[in-house]
Amino acid sequence: MNFCSIYQLNIWRTGLDCKFLLTWDDRQQISAALSYPEELDRLTETWQYSYLKAYESPLRGRVEDEFSFTPSFSVDWKNRAESAEKELLQKFQRWLGSQELLEIRQKIQGAVEEKKVTKKLWKTNDDCIDLLITCDSPELTRLPWEAWKIVSNAKIQISRTPLNGGNEAVFVERRGKPRILAIIAATSELNVNEDRRAVRSLNEVAQVEEVKFTLGENLDNFRQKLVEKLTDEIGWDVLIFAGHSDETMYTGGRLELAPGVTISLTEIEFQLMQAIARGLKVAIFNSCCGMSLAEESIRLGLHQVVAMREKISDRVAHAFLKQFCQSLAMHKDVQQSMQVACQYFEKEKSAYPSAYLIPSLFRHPSPKAKLFRIEPLGFQRWWRNWKPTRKEAIALSTVLLLSLLFPVQDLLFDSRTLVQAIYRNRTQQLPQTTSPIQLILIDQESINEAIAEFPDFETYPIDRRYLAELVNRLSNLNFKTVGINYEIYTQEPHQEQLTNALQTAVSEKETWFVFAVNEANKQKLLSATASPNWSLQGDLTFFNWDIPFPKDKNCFDTCPFTYWLALSLILNQDSSLTNLPQPFLENKTLFSDNIKEFLQQNQTINRINFNQKYSTLGIRPIIDFSLPPNKVYTKISAWKLLKGDLSYPNSSEQQIAIVASGGYPDAEDNFSVPLAINYWCNLEKRKYKKVEHCPQVFTGGEINSYITYHLVTPHQVTLIPNWYLIVIAAILGKWNNLLLQQLHPKNQKATIIKLTGLTILIGLVELQLYIYASILIPWLLPTFIYLYYLWLSIRRENNE
């Protein structure tokens, strides 16, 4: 919707003096006075005479006056009309360009420049100036004000308005197609069938009904037909009259319905007011001398009236209505439609001399009486409003493409969890419970100690003797569940020591061992190490910080490593369970099958859903790095576990030990440190002095500890994918833009600032929602596209 700034110019003539008064914004005004050149009256009369002589076809007026003529072929009246037109316009422009009107012109010029700046900054359609002209005398009213070149190459829409406003404009909203009433006069000399065709071209976008009069019909029927149609209870939006008309001094002009049958506007004033009360907004008088018709109609409360100030030829009337209706059907407003018709006449001046100067638009002075247009309906209307502009489409597709790129996804996720970690810390919304996960890390310090004990110590593959010592130590500490976060799929020296340690722990302590395997690389657990009949094997691969779940209910493919760890801990923590299968060396069936069978018989105890699947929309559970590591697991160096005075007298059965690499160079599961993890480490280093330096890598053991914690707690954050929120943000941005277009530009900027502030507030709400509802809602890209859509859509160019 365009918001044109409205300026009203009132012009009074007293003798040879004219007073101009420009008003805007209700109370601001500029006045000027200058003399009226009498030569303008003579030039106007000469042009009127030549213009009428230039046409041979019948005119749409009945008044017999000094201009009635018999077509003459001895004079080139078209050429004379062109000369008279130019002379009149030159004198008219020179008069309006006088020094006395400089301040008024400068004010309008300033408004135009302001619009250009607004359009450049905001890229709005708000680039026009509406100038409503009111004249107090017929001589002034007949001047071609629409041709006034106030500012060159500026979009100034000149309309007319009566001196006395009359009734208030009525605003009635109508759903569906607008209703158009066409009054087609009965006449033998005019080809009104062309008018009928032009009006019927609107059938696709409007409901068109016609009041058709026929020659020889009973005279009383003419008036009765018109009155009945005008007062239709459903109401009308547009009234179109085609036929003869005349100006009258006291009765608001008259229409000829048929030869000898005329009706004045004052005769049907009551019926017209009824029609206006029911929604009639616009009248088009495609007939001669319609100024009094237009002014009286505006006074009755119509929003806009298109009328011809002079007599017009029948073929000019046909061409005008055809061009006008075509533009209306293309959803242009009344003023634009009239301008299209006038531009057509100006381009075809040889065929229609001076015709572009004849039509005028009269408007109600109320700023609420917006220019009428036929809005598209159904999908067409929806698509017209909602279809993205070229810049919107480029922005949306670019942001969507970025959101689908894995590096961008990682960066956005990393940044988002960092912000969430900072928010958690500042608001002190941290878990209060102690995690049951003990992460035993074979770090560089542990390796240095091991090399001192075993000179032939190997880090890749990890020395089996060292793993055996850790297994023995954890068994002595009564850990019920132990996860080995190393892939043991090759035969290595001292393999039998590890096997003996595992078998001893199972036979003496019934320890549950969960081994990591790599399904993607087909790297299974070496059978000589441990039997699947008394141990569990889980796939340690994961993707994009997702929490892995079984692909199917029965785990025909290997269950995830962390899944078995969490399930083992949950089962062993529940002392009320009876008949819980335990690992033993003589077991003849798969231990994993024993557990599955037990779970099927005791379905209520299974706190981890075998049926967990990823949504087709990309909604998935992810690792919550906003939790500090010390709340997720307790990190212990392997050498401290072996040589330190560590004991777990009462709680080891309720805990889980995960043996993993500690970030030494040869380890295969070193990852880049997430920003949130780095934040927590630096916080401990800076504030609590608990660490001397932060690690440069984030180990697979730490990741699996996070995943296991989420499964055990259960604390699972659901990630809403960026693309999903981007689409929603674009829709909201477009919707808000459509609402903004209903506001005046002065209010748009303030509203946009408020909406921008609202998006920041939503970001804070999302941070809290992450904690309360465990939902990660992306903010950056959706917010960017929302604001970009919001700002860009209201700045789009008219040609987009």
* Shape summary: elongated
Widest beta sheet: strand line-up? 7-6-8-12-13-14
Q: How big is the Rg? A: 43 Å
Mean pLDDT: 87
Q: Distance N terminus to C terminus?
A: 14 Å
Number of strands: 25
Q: What helical percentage do the residues reach? A: 40-55%
Number of helices: 25
Give the low-confidence spans: 63-72, 796-800
Structure class: alpha/beta
Strand content: 15-25%
Largest sheet: 6 strands, mixed
Give a structural overview.
It contains 25 helices and 25 strands. It is elongated. Mean pLDDT is 87; it is low at 63-72 and 796-800. It is α/β, with parallel strands linked by helices and 800 residues long. The longest helix has 29 residues, at 745-773.
Can you give keywords for this protein?
alpha/beta; elongated; six-stranded parallel beta sheet; 800 residues; 25 helices
Short recap of the structure:
The chain is an alpha/beta fold and 800 residues long. The protein is built from 25 helices and 25 strands.
Question: What layout of secondary structure does this protein have?
Answer:
Layout: E1 5-14, E2 17-24, E3 28-35, H1 39-53, H2 77-96, H3 102-122, E4 129-135, H4 138-141, E5 156-160, E6 179-184, H5 192-200, E7 207-212, H6 219-230, E8 238-242, E9 244-246, E10 254-258, E11 261-264, H7 269-277, E12 282-286, H8 291-300, E13 304-308, H9 314-329, H10 334-347, E14 359-363, H11 378-386, H12 390-404, H13 406-427, E15 437-442, H14 444-453, H15 464-476, E16 481-487, H16 495-509, E17 512-517, E18 536-539, H17 561-573, H18 591-601, E19 620-622, H19 629-632, E20 634-637, H20 638-643, E21 656-661, E22 670-671, H21 675-688, E23 698-699, H22 700-712, E24 717-719, H23 722-740, H24 745-773, E25 775-776, H25 780-793
Parallel strand pairs: 1-4, 4-5, 6-7, 6-8, 8-12, 12-13, 15-20, 15-21, 16-17, 16-21, 17-18, 24-25
Antiparallel strand pairs: 1-2, 2-3, 9-10, 10-11, 13-14, 19-24, 22-23
Helix pairs in contact: 1-2, 5-9, 9-10, 12-23, 12-25, 13-21, 15-16, 17-22, 23-25
